[in-house]
Amino acid sequence: MSIDTVASPRKTPPMPLGGEAMGAWFDHDAADAAVDFFHTYLCHTEAEWYGKPFRLAPWQEHDIIRPIFGWKRADGTRLIRQAYIEIPRKNGKTELAAGVSLLALVADGELGGQGYSMAKDKDQAKIVFNKAGVMATLNPVLSDLVEVYKTSLYCGELAASFKPLSSSPGSKHGFSPSFAVADELHEWPDGELHDVVHKGTAARRQPLEILITTAGQPNVGYGWELHEYAEEVQKGNVIDPTFHAVIYAADAEDDWTSPETWAKANPNYGVSVKPDYLASEVAKARGNTRKQGDFKRYHLNIWNDQVAGGLPMDEWDAMPVRSVTLETLKGRPCWGGLDLASKYDLSALVLVSADDNDGYDVWCRFWMPEHRIRERSREDKVDYDKWMDQGWIVATEGNVIDYDVIRGTISGWRPEKEALAEMVERLSGGANILRDVQLEELAIDEWNAVQLLTQLKNDKVNCFSFGQGFKSMSEPSKELERLIMARKWNHGGNPVLRWMAGCTTYMADPAENVKPVKPNRKKSKKRIDGIVASTMALGRAMVKDPAPQPEQVWAIAC
Description:
Mean pLDDT: 89
Low-confidence stretches: 1-8, 545-558
Shape: elongated
Radius of gyration: 28 Å
Number of helices: 20
């Protein structure tokens, strides 16, 4: 397929650092042709622009398309082989990537070309692919060239295809991509799939990889790895003329509520990024830590340690506090959450009971193995030993948590051997939650807990297997934040729970569901077990009517 060029000012983009060593030169005709492909053959695929010609915005043309397709090596092939584009939501990055995919499919002249839209899951991988399919159908020339199928676009003239790709990398060895799009890299846990695709391009004449993402969490996942590399390339600390890095973002110190900051981070500000929408989002986020984190990440492209924010600790500390004991909860309906860590770490039990003020009274118990607790306190600089001495943490004997003590505390069970029974009685403090309160349900994260869960069921505790995915955790997570903001979460002044609340960060999915993120226990001293247990207990309290549990092997509800 030939592309007629358009007359345009012949402005040469800056040469990629190190390009001289590869004989780099700028091909204005090729850059013009790539721009003209968008203007002549492509249409937008949604909203008020649907069906209208795809006229590249200046930033799209001069920052991305012209550099990628104009810079050549001494042999005339493209210099740039990877383009990393990091940009906030709603700036048209997916639409642009779909257009580049069609350009590479039909205009590169690559016989037997193979293109792939990659993402961490099947649905995300189809987004760029589906947009490219719609674009192909909206233009009569492209619709004659490209056959659009459910799982592939096929250009018969070149025997070339474009497909979505999201499964494990193991099955992809041996294929030969000529171009690829990797979408929402901040969600990728690792770079295995991209690595396989990248190595597969080795036999191609001028392969092209488009890597697109918004900001995510620092030091987490493959997106952060590429972000750091892109910044080093931009700073000139890494010389890689084949890697084109484009990052649009506000600075962390910028005023996140200012329209000037919004315009700085969003190159499509005032077009696809609506000022009134951002203003309304700012209004919602004021005084809400989680939503502020969302806004900075999604709309200002600031990599945020608290991906979707954390809990409002100012409100936590300002909470009117009343003492909460099993005695004050005696006879009251309670819902529990039990989060078991490995036997070498903290485990948490939380009870919540509705009060007379549309809030909740909260009771907690934490367990740690006694072995090394004081040494760990010094090493981690966490007050485990102090909390143990004050009775906020129960230290079980030995170097692992004794789950018999947890079982005995919840159901009143005691071992047959007298010495063991005395130990469980002593470490449970005489507690028998099943006897002392009206325990409606105990929510349990089944990981590490199958045996204890079975034992508690045999003890007649009404248990509920509570998954840790967005579906289960989002609503109670949001409700917990609301209760704290409304000062209706009477935490009883528990210092361990307060510490864990301060450690808590939230992850959000594209649908704005949230869940607490468990820290890497090998790399972080932070712990959030009490907040996870609180969220599970609150989740079942919100349901109110306990669901009957079948007599069968438990399945995780995610």
